[in-house]
Amino acid sequence: MGVRLRLPGRLRVCAVGMILLLAAGCSNEAAATEPGATASDGPVSPSPSPVEPYPAVPRPPAAEAGGACEMFDFDVVEQTVGFRFEVAAASTHEKTQSCLLRPDEEPLPDLMVSISDTKASAAVFADDVAPVGAKKIENLGKAAYWVPLKPDPDTGYGAALEVNWITADPKSLSLRWTFAPGDDELSAVELAPKMVELARVVHENRKK
After folding, report:
1. Is 52 exposed, middle or buried (0-12, 13-18, 19+ CB in 10 A)?
2. What is the pLDDT of residues 185-208, one digit of tens each?
3. Helix or strand run (H / E) with residue 93
4. Less CB within 10 Å around the terminal CB: N or C of the chain?
5. Rounded-to-integer distance, Cα 125 and Cα 130, Å
C-alpha cells in the first residue's frame, strides 16, 4: 500500500533583478540558515509535520471471489490450521470448480479446494480411487482419505497434503495444501489432523 508523502513548505527563491525589498527579505532568510544564526536574524521555516500512513484497508472475504471460494473463510481457515491466507481466486475448468488461497506477499504455501461431479461409489472411491499410502478418514462424507505427497522437483514446490472425499450428491471434493520449498512429507503428515478438521468444516458449510 502506498504512503502519501507531505512535502515541506514552499521554498522561497530570490530572483536576480527583483526589487530591493524582496532581495532584503531573501537575504534575511539565507542568514537564518547559517551556523550560529538565531531567531532574531530572520524568519525560520517550520519543520515538516510527521508523515502519517493511510490506515490498512481490510481484505474482502474469500467468499467474495465467488465459485468454490464460497466454501472458504479466511478467519475459519486461520483458526483451524493456524495460518493466515489473504488472497482468494476462483476458477472453473470444464465441470470442476476450484478456489485457491495464498498469502499476500508469497505464492506458497497455498490451499486449494476443488469440487466436481463423480460417478464413483463409496466402495470404489475407497478401494480404487485412493492411492497407495492413503489413510482412511472416518465421518467425512460417504468415503474419505488423506495422503501426503512428495516435493515436486519439476516445479520446485515443497511437499503437499491432500484430503479427498465424496458426498451424497454425489460430488468429489479435494483439499490440497502445497508447502513452500524445503518442507518434506513429514510436514504434510503433521498437518493432516488440522486439514481433516478443515475438510469437515468445508463439508458442513457446503450443506448449508
Report:
1. exposed
2. 999 999 999 999 999 999 998 877
3. strand 87-93
4. C
5. 6
Question: Can you read off the three cell numbers belonging to residue 106?
Answer: 508469497
- Closest by Cα among 172, 191, 175 to 183: 191
What order do you get walking across the sheet with 87-93 strand by strand? 87-93, 96-102, 110-117, 171-178, 160-166, 143-149, 135-136
* pTM of the entire predicted model: 0.72
* 3-state class (DSSP) for residue 129: helix
C-alpha cell at 13: 527563491
Grid cell digits, residue 5: 508523502
Q: Which amino acid is at 24?
A: A
Q: Answer yes or no: is pLDDT of 101 > 90.
A: yes
pLDDT for the residue numbered 58: 72
In 3D space, the residue among 133, 74, 132, 109 whose CA is nearest the CA of residue 181 turns out to be 109
Distance CA 103, CA 51 (A): 28
Residue closest to 12 by CA, chosen among 36, 45, 61:
45
**pLDDT of 14-66, one tens digit each?**
433 443 343 344 444 444 444 444 544 555 556 666 666 666 667 799 999 99
CA angle 202, 142, 161 (to 5 degrees): 50
